[in-house]
Description:
Elements (H helix, E strand, L loop, with lengths): L6 H8 L6 E6 L5 E5 H17 L7 E5 L4 H12 L3 E5 L5 H11 L3 E4 L2 H8 L9 E4 L17 E4 H4 L11 H8 L6 E6 L9 E5 H8 L13 E4 L6 H12 L3 E4 L6 H8 L3 E4 L1 H13 L4 H15 L1 H5 L7 H16 L7 E4 L6 H9 L4 E6 L6 E4 L18 E4 L4 E5 L6 E2 L3 H6 L7 E9 L5 E6 L4 E2 L5 E2 L1 H9 L4 E7 L6 E7 L1 H10 L7 H6 L1 H15 L8 E6 L19 H7 L1 H7 L9
Parallel strand pairs: 1-11, 3-4, 3-5, 5-6, 6-7, 10-11, 12-13, 13-14, 24-25
Antiparallel strand pairs: 1-2, 8-9, 9-18, 14-15, 16-17, 17-19, 19-20, 21-22, 23-24
Helix pairs in contact: 2-3, 12-14, 12-15
Amino acid sequence: MQDVRTINDAFLKVSGRGERVAWHWLNGDGGWKAISSVEVYGRVRALAARLAEWGVGKGDRVALVSENRWEWAVTDFAALALGAVDVPLYMTLTAEQIGYMLRDSGAKVAVVSSWEMVEKVRAAGELPALERIVVMDEIPTHRDKAAMDGAPGVESFDELIKDAEAMQARDAEFDARVRGVQPEDLATIIYTSGTTGEPKGVMLTHGNLASNFTLSTKPFGFTDADSCISFLPLSHVTARHLDYALMLQNVMLAYCPKFDQIAPAMKAVQPTIFVAVPRVYEKVRQSVEGKSHGVKKRILNWALGVGQRHRAETLAGRQPGGLEWRLAERLVFAKIRAAFGGRVKIFVSGGAPLGMDTAGWFADVGIRILEGYGLTETSPVIAIATPERYRIGTVGPVLENVQVRIAEDGELEVHGPSVFHGYWKKAQDTAGAFTEDGWFRTGDIGRIDADRFLSITDRKKEMLKTSGGKMIAPQPIENKLKAHVLVGNAALVGDRHKFACALISPNFAVLESWARVKGVSFSDRKALVQDAQVVARYRRIVDAVNATLAPFETIKRVAIVADEWTVEGDELTPSMKLKRRVVEQRYAAEIAEFYKDEATAAR
């Protein structure tokens, strides 16, 4: 892949493989359809031609507001072919948030998935730079496509690429324009979801991304026999990076637009590669444990015990043997793997720290999860575990073209070709992101061993410092809590206080089922979380976690909240990270109750 210096170089390779199937996509009828490499080329060329007719050229911004589907990738490649800059936005953002990002980026065209997204853009307020909206879905006949109230008119995606079939032959002039884009040219502006503060547009060049995706998955040795379901939002740099890398290695990508379609997609596609954020793995574990009662629960616990005795073999990448293992495999482990389609050989977690409890549980069922780490600002991969180089509890070895160092306060600092050059129109923020000698400050606390294996312990700005001067890393403790099937999410609090406390958002589907079994009557969620039996059950969960912590880390008080934390509720970022400041503000009364007698309370 040494000749791939830009995303456009990758596109020319991906689209130059003739009739070979490049992508599969889930259509509206629930069936899967194939798109060949030559069809990819024709569609990209056709869309690029129409964008060029509209005056879209080098440096112009094209926004993308869509779930994962082939049209997303075609729009991405078409914009970049012209030297334009794409601006991917999460579908879960509010109209106000989308409006801010469209205005801030100065997007000229917005390509959206559905009429619902059209209406969200139209409700986003004044957008002086936006000239056109393109919608991927069929436009409802009763909807007005014309410009209205100052909002731009709407164009049909299908109409824009109607000549795609006739444009499948290679075109020297188009290919020359594609190759004319240079590594230093801006490719994308990705707005960081941000756990606090105003979103910042991360500017990544073609060279930033290409230097990363040509290297990160190389040790895995993927081939055209491999397949992967693209379901993590492509508005997130990890998913986009992964798709570029896998396309280059001839891996077949299957676009799954909605998360609730993942289970049937797994059965239909039977992927060999599975990449997800930790929350997906946590939900799988909770689903398995939540469905295990009585005899099933005893069988699961027995099988986990067998797996734990063979954990070292699984983590070393070896298949355990023995009669007990084979029996546990047949009764339990094979069924868990079947939920992933039954053929996955590589499991990867990224986007947030994977808790040791979750990693250990999956190892005990025979699944080794390889962890990776990076940030939007680093394109994104800084380190990733591989089948040959893996250690549980680390995020793997640092990439060979990335330099890392640990500052005096423990913060990880990074230097290399994948590190971004700055935030869009935010010079002050850009300056603050780098050290005086040009190293990027990640904001994460980490350590590196002699073999360049990297461990991330917490976010620098989220570390809690007790009034006694002790530093507490909240994420590992929260991950321990979330490992329990009854816990949906958790937030540790206690900065500048005498002791730590916790807010817990339950896994309500499991909790309500548990309550019915236990004979707990409740009129609503508020009544449920205040029930004495429920409070006592969560206290036991906290006590079990406390038993694994240092005395100064232990959770002294806990509040069970009546809300399920979600992206839509603004408690979580679109990449499922906790918005700690939002949660602290929302539950200020509960936190105040924790510490009302702090001066006299025992530690």
